[in-house]
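Retro notes, item 3 of 5
We never archived the inputs for the nicotinamide-adenine-dinucleotide complex last cycle. Fixing that now. Sequence and ligand:
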Amino acid sequence: MANEDLQNYIDGAWRHSHATEYREVRNPATDALLARTPLSPPEEVAQAAEAAQRAFWEWRQTPPVQRIQYLFKLKTLLEEHFEDLVRSITLENGKVLDDARGEMRRAIENVEVACGIPSLLLGDFAEDVAHGVDEYMIRQPIGVVASICPFNFPGMIPFWYLPYALACGNTVIIKPSERTPLTMVKVFHLLEQIGLPTGVVNLVHGGPDTVNAILDHPLIQAVTFVGSTPVARHVYSRASAHGKRVQAQGGAKNPLLILPDADPELTVRIVTDSVFGNAGQRCLAAANIVMVADAGKTFTPLLAEAAEQRKVGNGLEPGIEMGPVISPQSKSRIQGLIQAGVAEGAHLVVDGRNPVIPGCEQGYFLRPTVLDGVTPSGTLAQTEIFGPVMSVLHVATIEDALTLVNSGSYGNMACVFTSSGAAARKFRHEAQAGNVGINIGVAAPMAFFPFSGWKESFFGTLHGQGKHAVEFFTQTKVVVERWLKTWSRPF
Ligand code: NAD
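Structure as it came back at the time:
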């Protein structure tokens, strides 16, 4: 990919930004410069919002069955360009090709679900709520909507929203992460080919000032956000203060319980994939591995061995299981957190802090790290590390484990590995998390389920994906209707 200053896509055309500041996009595996992201000024957000507003009326009038014809074309193009998009994700984010494939597959699945919008939009109807009076509820689009996205799933997360927003009749602005904007640029080149009316979809690059311009702009009716908790909280409060509809997904610190009766082979494979997949940069990565009773005796050595064996390198190469983290700053932050854990008494079982990856000496690599005996109230157990670090904690009973799980400030995901149905049932029932895995390490919901999150992991009510997205991107209108005419009796 050539080095280039990226352009915004506004009102049906690619446009140079008048940004005065740019952010470099680098391949985290090699440090090679890939592009520069303009930190677009508020005027460019305003141009996108005005273009989307101009497009809204015609798009709203387009019947849903016609709107989804564009999505069918998009699905075809995404399939045709699948490997190109996958490679782009790996280049800008560092994750291995198979993880990028899984990401794009879920993105496409959301387009497929949104193609069902004619059924998903069906309203409710009640006849004779009073004599000769009928009442019904219809769903109408809300207008211009915007999605603000994080770096870790540059291909998938915009698709939690974009296809539903469009299918429901809204017009859209996407603000990708300034660190991983390239895959969305490719997606917008495909969106350009499906012939959507001018202004229906817009891409605005940028950083915090661009985000704030989105949150403040009066034409933008709804905002979705995915990213870290402090920014999620900021987005939620600032956009809500302007009367916008908002959903904001935040960070995570996901606990995963291992009971002594868990299947060793399955547990070790799946748990290490959860902790170290995407180099731990998944909001559904397991981070705190909670050994119940004497499970640690069996499982800690097995997990440590699997961590040591993980093949780390450039995600573009075959056979690699873990790529780099996103930036040098992220790498040194993670190294610092490991050091803080050691200082608080954790035992470093596998130390992945300073690896040398032949051929990738400039990349931002860590190897898997495993720490045992982590203090539940300490830095390692409480902080979202967002890197390939496994913290092992020990508790006596499943009740103690649930107390630990539910004392955490986040609530994105909680998992249990066991062969006991009763223990699994108790866990599912009591764990305070929006996504629960039972013998599953990354409990990522299919596109027809909402991507939930509780506590500090989510601000709002309705989530992305499936029926929640349909509800979020529509407003309900209830009509009470009377027609006064007396007909002759038919029977
Ligand atoms: P981030 O919060 O740094 O950035 C997310 C977006 O917010 C970006 O588009 C960025 O430009 C913008 N932004 C950053 N700082 C801002 C500020 N001060 N004011 C306004 N806008 C700002 O997040 P990230 O590092 O890109 O992504 C990683 C985080 O996202 C992790 O915390 C991870 O857990 C979380 N995440 C959560 C989910 C979920 O579903 N809950 C999914 C993926 C990622």
